[in-house]
Specification:
The structure is a homodimer. By secondary structure, chain A is of the alpha+beta class. Chain A is built from 3 helices and 6 strands. A 3-stranded antiparallel sheet of chain A has the order 1-2-3, with no helix packed on it. A two-stranded antiparallel sheet of chain A has the order 4-5. Strand 6 of chain A pairs parallel with strand 5 of chain B.
């Protein structure tokens, strides 16, 4: 069944700070000083990496019983390469990440081959990963002057 | 200059909860009860919407002087459609968002046409938007058994 998820992002008075809200949860984002901010929070491309890693982690947890896969601990390390000169208009490179790499860590007694299969399942199942790997239709649905 | 941004995501003991970390910042993510979690935080696809909205907001702030564009307030409302039956393997639909829509709100005295042009500039400049609109190469760079 199609489900619609919602969020808002609002500029705060201080520099580049942004408050994002979903239901009763919020995340404060900012840029580090070298990117023009006041470093009050992680920046949006870092939050994007967090969303991907969290999505993979939830898939790892949620699907384990159905795969008869047991593990004691799981974490993922992610990194993405971006050239800020792209969105600054200073170089002819894309504005977003050029590549995102991740390493999955399991504490488990499962055999190596089964762990590697499960890691691939996580990679291809994760909704945020699908959005990033295959792209999403983005629609500027309105511009309001309040 | 190519810059590498990094994050980690770690499964917590409670249900589907995940702690994500970037530098000295963290975000707790979870799923609502109807998606199997304990609702201790927003979920990863909601965080993805936040990352997109925050990125647009920072672009709105950071590039305004260069565009001779002034505004008093800015916020963006975002929503994305997803069918959880996709990643649950229950329906032949994609696992991620099928579409993401956003409405940008400005409090400004600028003329309507200039506001609409600036909104389009924000849309095409935002790095997270580029990642989502055009996709990113994702690389499972390793599977470690600790």
């Amino acid at each position: 069944m199609l489900t619609t998820f919602k969020a808002t992002a609002k500029k705060l008075p201080d520099g580049l700070q942004v408050e994002t809200n979903v239901r009763n949860f919020k995340i404060l984002m900012d840029e580090p000083e070298e990117l023009g901010g006041t470093n009050a929070g992680m920046n949006p491309v870092e939050a994007l990496l967090c969303a991907l890693g969290a999505c993979q982690t939830i898939v790892a947890s949620a699907f384990a019983p159905a795969h008869n896969f047991t593990f004691d601990e799981f974490h993922v390390e992610l990194e993405g390469d971006m050239d800020p000169d792209g969105f600054m208009g200073l170089a002819d490179v894309r504005n977003g990440f050029q590549e995102i790499r991740f390493v999955m860590h399991f504490k488990t007694d499962e055999p190596k081959e089964k762990v590697e299969e499960y890691a691939k399942f996580i990679e291809r199942t994760c909704p945020v990963g699908d959005c990033l790997a295959n792209g999403v239709k983005l629609v500027l649905a309105g511009v309001k002057i309040d």
